[in-house]
Amino acid sequence: RQPIIIDTDPGQDDAVALLLAAASPELELLGVTTVAGNVPLHLTTLNARKVLELAGRRDVPVCVGADRPLDVPLVTAEHVHGDTGLNGVNLPEPMLAVDPRHAVDFIIETLRAREAGTVTLCPLGPLTNIALALRRAPDIASRIKRIVLMGGGFFEGGNVTPAAEFNIYVDPQAAHEVFTSGVPITMAPLDVTHEVLTTAKRIDAIRALPNRVGAVVAAWMEFFERYDEEKYGQDGGPLHDPCVIAWLLQPGLFTSRDCNVRVETQSELTRGMTVIDWWAVTGLPANAQVLRHADADGFFALLTERLAQLP
Ligand code: BDR
Ligand code: CA
């Protein structure tokens, strides 16, 4: 089994990613670390606990991380996710307690305790916790197998400014430090996640599952897709974060290219832009595998089959 740590700011799409990971026997979910992003930290932490409880996974530690980006004020996205971050269905107060370890300590300790080159980090929100861990313990860089993250965009432009995707925009300095860390990176940018759309037919198939998770996920998707449906006039919204977990499970669902990627941290106009050298015009070495296209039907077949395994 592939050991992973998910760093997250749930978020309906983060929640679906957590469920997909929790339901997949190929993955060993070592822990979930929370970060401020879509909503403030106390809510992302509460939401992560609710989602693991829903999945029947009280065994997974939830560790609380950074409450703000490294050096800019927090920007949140209630206009997309609702005031709780997880609008669409009211889940009960979870029994699962918060782990006493700080997220950054948990990441460092876990990487040091496990055999080097085995643990994959899966950041689904701003990269603050990952950057803090790399700052505090530079030795972990060589111990991380790979960072598989949702963030950035190139062909599709941005979703929070014309240039920037939300996760990178919120903490551009953290993203810069991660992209220059030397750790192997796979990134799922908007270019690929905008192909993975929650159409009515796909949601119906999930709602029809004979478990509670099916109804909950369908309700989340219906709330979440409204923002993009109104904005882009399409059927369905993008299921960003689950692409990270789907790539771990079935990389063949995606096409990709190894590229040099740099993050803009200074410019007011293009803050948080991921400058992806898709055409290799700079001659700079590739530092990330950039996902480009997805087999969306294959993705939803996998997701639906796995969600069916949950309570
Ligand atoms: C990313 O931002 C958040 O709103 C989503 O959870 C996803 O991680 C998409 O830009
Ligand atoms: Ca997220």
Automatic annotation (TrEMBL):
PROSITE patterns: IUNH (PS01247). It holds the Pfam family IU_nuc_hydro. GO terms for molecular function: hydrolase activity. The keyword Hydrolase applies. InterPro entries: I/U_nuclsd_hydro_CS (IPR015910), Inosine/uridine_hydrolase_dom (IPR001910), IUNH (IPR023186), Ribo_hydro-like (IPR036452). Keywords: Glycosidase, Hydrolase. The keyword Metal-binding does not apply. Coiled coil: none annotated. It comes from the Bacteria. Residues 4-300 form the Inosine/uridine-preferring nucleoside hydrolase domain. SUPFAM superfamilies: Nucleoside hydrolase. This is Nucleoside hydrolase. It comes from Pelomonas margarita.
